[in-house]
Amino acid sequence: MKKIAILALMLCLSANTAFATSFTDIDNHWAKDSIVTLADKGIVNGVTDTLFMPDATVTRAQYLKMIMETTGVSTKPMREGECLDANGNDWYADYLQGALDCGLVPKDMVLNYSEKVQYTVDEEGKATSTKVIYTGQFNGNNPITREEMAVLTQYMYQYTRTIITNNKTSDTEIEFADAQSISKWAEASVAQAVKNGFMDGMDNNMFNPTDTATRAQASTVILRVLNK
Which of 47, 96, 99, 186 has its CA at 20 to 30 Å from residue 138's CA atom? Predict the structure, then answer.
């Protein structure tokens, strides 16, 4: 029986590896090694069995799920009406609720953001519990930008080490040619994400903060966080 179990495990591992390396559109791609490594670990999936589409965009919700699972930030059951614009039909609602409850969704990424503390009181008028209701639009299906990816990456990474960067000024200077184009609220996280080796510049020493991130770029960042 032990031999059968070992053989079955070997077959499963072989099948996973074969699946990960069967993407026909990454053979000559710069991110091939990162994509294959993460696919083998079951962290990323292809768009189909044979296509990964490395240069396609990544949505905010997709990257939120990837970075939360990578850093170990827990999901929370979605509370209807308290989770921005997500509802029970959104697959990512529990991820967004978990990130919100931990203070890991930057307010600047939420349109019309507001939060309200709701108290439950007993018969004597004493508060027995509190909860925070978050409203606004996260727009989880929108493509994520490179600076937004940097912020979520750094927030999640720092949170698992009990330090949250938030909007504090970074002591690391941003040396990209387009540094002035980086949003003020994202500057500290971009600087730290670069310092930690999670992200780097593009051609001509540009960071391109408002460019939409690709599946290949997201895979590379996730693998770097895993390795660190």
Answer: 47
